């Protein structure tokens, strides 16, 4: 099979399309014929060698894919060859024509959801759900601020929050991005480049503040976030590219919480709940992944550059 092979950490060009043996499904495993592959920023950090957790070399990147079951191992009764599925983790890497997975890493994909959309689920939608519902403990009637509301995780958070009855405020850096966030359900969207952005957000709540902030760039925003929180508000930090400076008194005066989150810390029970909720949302069309671009697998270096570029408008996927 064709797969991306990484023999050394470095720039995107270290990813090479190679011929490698097709894996076989052992007991408790399934082999997925990949139709689309999700590209996530974390994969660029791993490839560069600058992430806290790096795989042994050589390796095939990726965890998110969608396709059909090619082969099932002994003892697997939940799936049959030909079933439509998406993956949230793999054993062999997702940047390939086939992906070997343990059974808990594979989830059913509704007929109404395209393979490209299925490839957009594993990291972005699971991260957004865990941040909003499991870590953020958001409930209907609350006001949620989603930074970066036009990107893969941002769009997922907007859709999930809106489906759960929350008032959704977003930020995005371009007019096209702000329009997209509004189309996906945000009630109001602001330009995060504007110097008075946070003041405008606070004013939009009649100075009450927001109950929950989904923070994708904490090193830039966290100090400002605390000033727009309502009493008992929460900030869930999903992403950061460096250190942040805050005034603790801004949290103290509001009885506010700052909560970290990494999807890898989710328990098996948490993950099962996340993917049950995602399937329901896909089935009833409240969750609709937006695909920004489909890139051939052979152009994986271009996909890695695109996924970390500013002005994201949905999800980058690759096609084998």
Describe this structure in a few short sentences:
The chain is an alpha/beta fold and 320 residues long. The protein has helices at residues 41-48, 115-118, 121-135, 152-163, 175-183, 197-204, 218-225, 248-252, 268-283, 300-307; strands spanning 2-6, 15-19, 29-38, 64-72, 84-88, 98-102, 106-108, 143-146, 167-172, 188-191, 210-215, 229-237, 257-260, 291-296, 315-319.
Overview of this protein structure:
This protein has 10 helices and 15 strands. The chain has helices at 41-48, 115-118, 121-135, 152-163, 175-183, 197-204, 218-225, 248-252, 268-283, 300-307, and strands at residues 2-6, 15-19, 29-38, 64-72, 84-88, 98-102, 106-108, 143-146, 167-172, 188-191, 210-215, 229-237, 257-260, 291-296, 315-319. Strand 14 (291-296), helix 10 (300-307) and strand 15 (315-319) form a beta-alpha-beta unit. 48% of the residues are buried.
């Amino acid at each position: 099979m064709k797969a991306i092979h990484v023999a050394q950490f470095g720039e995107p060009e270290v990813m090479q399309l190679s011929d490698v043996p097709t894996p076989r499904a052992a007991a408790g495993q399934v082999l997925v014929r990949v139709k689309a592959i999700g590209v996530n920023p974390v994969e660029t950090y791993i490839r560069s060698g600058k992430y806290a957790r790096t795989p042994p070399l050589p390796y095939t990147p990726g965890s998110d894919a969608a396709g059909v079951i090619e082969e099932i191992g002994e003892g697997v009764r939940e799936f049959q060859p030909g079933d439509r599925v998406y993956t949230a983790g793999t054993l062999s890497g997702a940047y390939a024509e086939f992906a070997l997975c343990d059974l808990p890493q594979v989830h059913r994909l509704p007929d109404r959801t395209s393979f490209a959309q299925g490839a957009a689920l594993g990291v972005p939608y699971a991260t957004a759900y865990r941040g909003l519902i499991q870590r953020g403990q958001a409930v209907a009637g609350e006001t949620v601020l989603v930074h970066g509301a036009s990107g893969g995780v941002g769009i997922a958070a907007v859709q999930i929050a809106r489906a759960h009855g929350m008032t959704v405020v977003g930020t995005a850096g371009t007019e096209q991005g702000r329009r997209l966030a509004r189309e996906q359900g945000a009630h109001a969207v602001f330009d995060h480049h504007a110097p008075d952005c946070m003041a405008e957000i606070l004013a939009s709540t009649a100075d009450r503040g927001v109950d929950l902030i989904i923070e994708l760039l904490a090193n830039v925003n966290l100090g400002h976030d605390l000033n727009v929180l309502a009493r008992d508000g929460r900030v869930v930090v999903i992403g950061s590219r460096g250190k942040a400076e805050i005034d603790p008194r801004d949290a103290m005066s509001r009885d506010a919480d700052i909560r970290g989150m990494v999807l890898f810390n989710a328990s098996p029970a948490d993950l099962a709940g996340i993917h049950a909720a995602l399937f329901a949302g896909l089935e009833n069309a409240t969750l609709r992944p937006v695909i920004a671009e489909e890139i051939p697998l052979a152009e994986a270096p271009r996909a890695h550059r695109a996924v970390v570029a500013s002005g994201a408008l949905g999800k980058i996927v690759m096609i084998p």
